[in-house]
Amino acid sequence: MTDQPTPAPADLRQRIAEALMRWAEGNNAPQYAAIRRPETVTKNAYARADAVLAELKRELDALAEYENTINWHTTCTSCARVLDSAHRETERAEQAEAAIARVRDLRDDLRGITGARYIADALDTILVGPISDPAAGPTVAECADNDRRWPLEKHGE
N or C, fewer C-beta in 10 Å, the chain? Predict the structure, then answer.
């Protein structure tokens, strides 16, 4: 379920073009009915089918949005959009969690390999973050950040 309207199916374009070509063939004289369709007739029919679909785009989008609200069992299109957004975010979060789980599994597998211990340690740093030593004191970046937050003032003024 998405809040994006679904595009017109490709077969709809083809069906419209075929109908236009049959109409053109039906309006020809009987002696030309056996002649194979020239390429220009096919191109013209598909160009007209594209024009028809362009005119129907708004109606097709509205129909897709209405079908989407029905799929969510609501009559409120705004509510359906919110549900779509929440659904997409849930899927994105699940995919991210699955990717992190795969990296953790790889890290655990690398722990058992003697030469790959350093790679596993690097993956630990990525997953958990660097472990800081409290006895080492603040880093240069932390000091600079503190200086920006606490403006220097002269005492006694």
Answer: C
